[in-house]
Amino acid sequence: MSGSLNLMKLCVGAEGPDDLAAWQAQRFGDGNARHVTRMWPKREAELLDGGSIFWVFKGVMLARQRILDLQRVEGEDGVQRCGIVLDRKLVRVSAVPRRPFQGWRYLAGADAPQDLPEGREVEEPLPPAIAAALAEMGLR
Hints:
By secondary structure, this protein is of the alpha+beta class. The chain has one domain.
C-alpha cells in the first residue's frame, strides 16, 4: 500500500467489517460493491492505480477494499455523483483510531495501516475502544 493513494471513509451504520460485508452481500449479491459519494476525486488516476478505500468503524480504521473504478451516477435529483466501484473482498487492517470527519479524505499509502497477517483476519476483533487505545500506544 505504500505507493498507492487511497481514500478514507467513515462507515456509518455498520458495527464492523463483518456487518459491512453482510450489507454489501445483501445489496449487491455476487457483483462488485459500489459506494456513491457527492464529490468526484480530483486524483482519480492515482486512486485507480492500486488504491483502496479504508473504512473507519466507530472511530477505528479496521478494513479496506480495493477501488476498481469510478463511475458517474445521476441521482434521483438529477445531480451527478461519483460511484466508487469496490472489490468485494474486505481486507482487515491494523486498527488505527480516527477522529470523525465528513465525506472522504485522501490517505497516502505511506500513512495507511498494514494488512493484518494471514490467519489474524479471522480472529474475533477487539472492541473498538480497546483497539483504539492499543493503536494510540503503538501496539496495534
